[in-house]
Amino acid sequence: MDVSTGVPAVDTVLVWGGAISLLIGVGTAAWRVGRGALHLSRRTTQFFDDWYGEGARPGVAARPGVLERMSQMEERLAQVYHEVYPNGGDSLRDAVNQANDRLAILCPDPCVQEPPDPPDEPSDR
Fold first, then answer.
1. How far is it, in rounded angstroms, from Cα 95 to Cα 104?
2. Dmax over Cα atoms in the chain, in whole Å?
3. Where are the alpha helices (DSSP H) in the chain?
């Protein structure tokens, strides 16, 4: 099927115009895909830098990675655990319990009633 306008100059312009339009469309699509891939690559690099940490650079201190920071948190949690639960005298909890015991001796609570003394047993006379 031979489709033409009958004017060779117009046919040439139409063919070249279609080819240029096609090239511009393909180039635009490739540019957008490349720009999206570059953006994804940058975000992925940022994620891995945060995950694994970064070494020190001139003017910038080193940043530990996620796993190293979690390890530090576990160490601090062990220290907190040591202070919160009684362990025989070394913890903050033991000190609070000891202070409460001393305070109870010095200032008994008037609302708490002591159980009455048992009645004296009759003696055999």
1. 14
2. 149
3. 8-52, 66-84, 92-106
Q: How many Å apart are CA 96 and CA 112, to the nearest integer?
A: 21
Counted residue by residue, the chain has a size of 125
Check if the beta carbon of residue 11 is closer than 8 Å to that of residue 4: yes
pLDDT at 76 over 80: yes
Within 10 angstroms of residue 64's Cβ, the number of other Cβ atoms is 13
Q: What pLDDT band is residue 49 in, cutting at 50, 70 and 90?
A: confident
Range 5-14 contact pairs with CB under 8 angstroms and sequence separation of 24 or more: none
Say whether 13 sits in a helix, a strand or coil. Answer: helix
Concatenating the DSSP letter of every residue in 51-72 gives: HHEE--BTTB--EE-HHHHHHH
Q: What would the two tokens of residue 125 be?
A: 């006379």
